[in-house]
Each structure stands twice: as structure tokens, then as C-alpha cells.
Amino acid sequence: MSRFPVENIRNFSIIAHIDHGKSTLADRLLEITGTISSKTDNKQVLDKLQVERERGITVKAQTASILYNYNDKTYLLNLIDTPGHVDFSYEVSRSLSACQGVILLVDANQGVQAQTVANFYLAFEAGLTIIPVMNKIDLKVADPARVAVQMENLFDTKEGEIIKVSAKLGTGADEVLKKVVDSLPAPVGSRDNPLKALLFDSWYDRYRGAILNIAMVDGSVSVGDKITSAHTNKSYDVKEVGIMHPEQTPTSTLYAGQVGYVIAGMHNIKEAQIGDTLYSAKHAVTPLSGFKPAKPMVFAGMYPIDKSDYVSLRSAVDKLTLNDSSVSVSIDSSPALGQGWRLGFLGLLHMDVFNQRLEQEYNAEVIVTSPSVPYKAKLLNTKANRHDYGQVDVITITNPTLFPDRQKVSEYYEPIVHGTIITPDDYLGKVISLCLSKRGEQMEFNYIDDKRVLLKYKLPLNEIVVDFYDMLKSATSGYASFDYEDAGFEPANLVKMDILLNGKVVDELATIVHREKSHDIGKAVCERLQETIPRQLYQIAIQAAIGSRIVARENIKAMRKNVLAKCYGGDITRKMKLLKKQAEGKKKMRKIGSIEVPKEAFIAVLKR
């Protein structure tokens, strides 16, 4: 790879809405260049995780270096296939830092979707060259003319500039490669300068430790070199360098402009800090700016089902968070579930995928508590508050059990997002009604062509984080798309809702809700628990309470034994005596009995 001058290198990502064909296009580009052999089973070659193949979505951005012969020159193209779901937008933003351009992919049938718009602005703000590509032109229902109008209205792209392809059949894929070479700038960097490399991703290997994905900015790195981390100020000996071709392919040296991997014996996984700058131990350099830290939008408690698995689960969580740096971790404990963690995720799908990866890759069985979003509270300046919270005026609440009493607070704040919805105008009424039911406030209304509408709403995050996406898809027969971005905090009338089983509070099921929605949410939670908690020999009362006020209640009836079966007649007092004895026994059991809340009950409340 040393024979490639910087001007013959192109680094680019493929970005799009979910299910618009990014991974399929990546497969065809790898086939055309001979990086992989042409086989019928070449599907999602870069989707290496089991969860990605099962769900048919990309979760992790994956790199592949390919060689392309064009105009009697050989080019080194570094391709990054990125996720398309809003929950994994942090993967996209990190991947763009290693690129000089992007392929913006749009489905010729579905058209521009909400995440397409979000990804376009990520690339635009990063100052990257954008190549517009329209995919799935082979479909009978494709409407390229309509989609071209949408792209012109939203991205100011002329129809003649759009490359039309069928990633499934390979039609037009060669045109994409030619455009990449002709349009994208080469990386800016010098191989004569001291080493400077950006660590933009990493994963863990049980035998070789942390494997670092790096974008070479300046200089070169070879096996045997000593490199230093700007984050930890520790030095490491380089054991192996190489490129992804698409599997790990060792090379002797990586040079400025290339994207590759480095193994340097980092066995403490916390040392591999995403956004870190690596430089030669002989020459100190000014660190690169790195990335904005990911801002978790959803928090949930995670506990081992078997408490003896705590140590192995801690190791699994550490290794998986190295691979997914957007997850925040803090230690937590629960009287019912023991020691665990409070994890922050970018969304509910992100949380679900993280849980599934724990089970598949590390054989870990966990209980995940009901998700909540981070809230803030402005404290009253009292002596008691200063004793509890120090001199802090505003606190952030990620765990409902730590929600402060109203008497200590002057104002509560909830997180707000700016949501973008693109929908056919046939479903406009249903979409507007749904947004209003979620306390939404309309900000923008535009037709992007003669049938599709772009709506922008200001929405409370806790209203959309659990079931909004599913409800939107149901209301629009699957045609609408949704994306959101953080918009800070606004004052709100918030209360803590406790769940009681026979008068005893279950801390893990506590939630923070808007006062207007407390009855509806409380009733829904009680009904779910009624369906999932097994019946006992005594009645169980499930209650949702705000302070001392009960807002919803459901009962689980007791299992009954017919104690009168042996009575074939006789005086009524004999039957009454047996029934009274049974009632007293059930009353006693209710006092001393403990109610086991199964994992299914937590999951039922989780999905509310």
C-alpha cells in the first residue's frame, strides 16, 4: 500500500435513511473492484454482527479499503458503510470525520426520508463533497422523476447530477466509483510530517486487546514504532497495522491519507478513547479536535438475573461499550435487583440492540428496567438543599428514584426535541393528531413535491421515546419517516409516579411523567403488570400513585380452591366456617407473602 501517493486516495462514506440499500451498494462496489468474489450469497458483507444480519439493519459503521483501476491509474478507496437509523447517528458523525466526501443514497420508490435529510446536513456541515445517488431504479413502482424533484427541493440537486443505480443488480455502480474518483478531493496531509492519527472507532479482541480504527492525518506508522495517546499520555509499542480489505489485512506501514487499524497492546479497554489523537513518542503534536461526546437520550437500569454473574457482566458491558462509545455507564443498585448499572442510550432501538448483543456475544442474561429520559430540576436555595446537593442550583435526574420532592424545587425541566416528519399528504390529518396528542407544537409545514409533506414539530422527548415511531408507522401504513435532534430543556409540570404491589413500592417501576398524562400512563402500566405477574393464592392490588394519591388500580384475582367440595349438605354454618377459615388464611398470606416480579413484567412496562 506504500505505492499509493496521497492524491490517489479517496475516503468516503455511504449515508442514507434505513433500508435504502447502503449495504447492498457496498456489496456491489466490493464485487466490481474484485475485493470480494461475485457470489449470489454476497449480502450485507460489511454487516458482521449477528444482530445486523437478523434485523437487516446496519448498527456499526464498517470500513473496507478497495483498489480501483481508472484511467490507467490505481486508486485506493476507503469506503465506510454507515447505519441509517436515527439512534445510530453518532456512528455516522464519527465516520464522516475520516472522509472527504459522501454518497447520499435515496430510494427511487420511497423518496427522501427524514433521516436522509438529517444525514445530508451532517455531511454539509462537515464541509464534505456530496454525490447524490438514486437507488432501486429496477423496481416497478420506482418513480425517479418524483424523487428527483424532492432532492432538488431539499438539497438543491439538479436531476442531471443524480447517478441512477440498482444496487441489487449492479446497474450504474461503476458510474458511482468513477464519480468518487473525479469529484472527491484527496486527503490533506503530508507523509513527511510527524505522525498524527485520529482514533474514530475501536473494538475488542479477547486475545489481542483493543483494535483501533484510525484515520491517518500526517506521517506514517509501522510495526515496532512507539506511539503515544494524547488522552492518556501513555506510550505503546505497535504490534500490527493494516487495512480492512474487507477483513483485517496486515501491512507493514500505514501512511497519511489512509484509513486502517492499529493493534498496540491496549488491554485496559478504557484507554481506547474515541476521538483521541495518536502521535509518535518522539514528536509531540497538537491534538486533533476529536468529537463532541454523545448525548444519551434514554436511560435504563441494567441488572444481572443471577447476582453471581455480576463480575462477568461488568466485563461484558466494558467490552461492548468500547465497541459502542455512545453508551454512558454509571454504577447503580436496587434493593430488589442488587448491584447493576445505569446506562444511557441514544434511543430505544439502540438500547434494544445493546441488550441483544450482550445476550448473543457474551451469553449475558439481564433485566432492563423501564426507560426514562434525563430531566432537570432547579432547586430552592435552602439550607436543607445545600446539605443534600451542595452549591448546585440545577441538578440532572436520570433515575426516577432520585426525583426530588416538589417542596425542594422551584422548577422542573424536561428535554425537548425538534422532530422532522416526512409523510404522504393522504395521512396528514392522522399525523397532526398524533403529534398534538404527544403535546407537540408545529414549527414548519412544507410540500416537498405534489404528494409529500415535510413537517417539523417541537416535541417532549419522553412522549416520543417509547412508542411514537410505531404509532406513526401504524397511522401512515408505514409510509412516514421520522428523525429528531436535541433542542435543550423547557419548564414542565412533572411528577414521579410510583407503582405499588399490595401497598409496597417497587422502585424499579417508578417513572417520571407529565401530570396531564399520569392517569393514562398509570392505567396502562397497571394493565400490563396485571397481564404478566403470575396469580398467587391471594389477591394482588396493583396501584399507580403520585405521592399519596392513587391514580390507577388493577387487581389480580386469587387462585381459588373449592373448600366446600367435601360438603354434601348439612347446616349452612359448617360451610360458612370453612369459607371464613380460608379467608383468614389468605389474609395472613397476603401480609407475609412476597410478590416475585418476573423479567417479562419489566419488559411489558418497558414497552408500555
Can you tell me about this structure?
Belongs to the GTP-binding elongation factor family. LepA subfamily. Its main location: mitochondrion. It is found in: Mitochondrion inner membrane. Keywords: GTP-binding, Hydrolase, Membrane, Mitochondrion, Mitochondrion inner membrane, Nucleotide-binding, Protein biosynthesis. This protein has 608 residues and is of the alpha+beta class. The chain folds into 5 domains: 178 residues, Rossmann fold (3-Layer(aba) Sandwich); 85 residues, Translation factors (Elongation Factor Tu (Ef-tu), domain 3), CATH 2.40.30.10; 71 residues, Alpha-Beta Plaits (2-Layer Sandwich); 117 residues, Alpha-Beta Plaits; 113 residues, Elongation factor 4, C-terminal domain (Alpha-Beta Plaits, 2-Layer Sandwich). 27% of the residues lie in helices and 33% in strands. The protein has 15 helices and 31 strands. The strands form 6 sheets. The protein has an 8-stranded antiparallel sheet. A 6-stranded mixed sheet has the order 2-3-1-4-5-6, with helices on both faces. The longest helix has 21 residues. The two termini are 54 Å apart. The mean pLDDT is 83.
CATH topology of the largest domain, by name, is Rossmann fold
Rg over alpha carbons: 28 Å
Q: CATH superfamily of the largest domain, please?
A: P-loop containing nucleotide triphosphate hydrolases
Q: Please give the oligomerization state of what you see.
A: single chain
**What is the arithmetic mean of pLDDT?**
83
In helices, the fraction of residues equals: 25-40%
Task: State the gist of this model.
The chain is an alpha+beta fold.
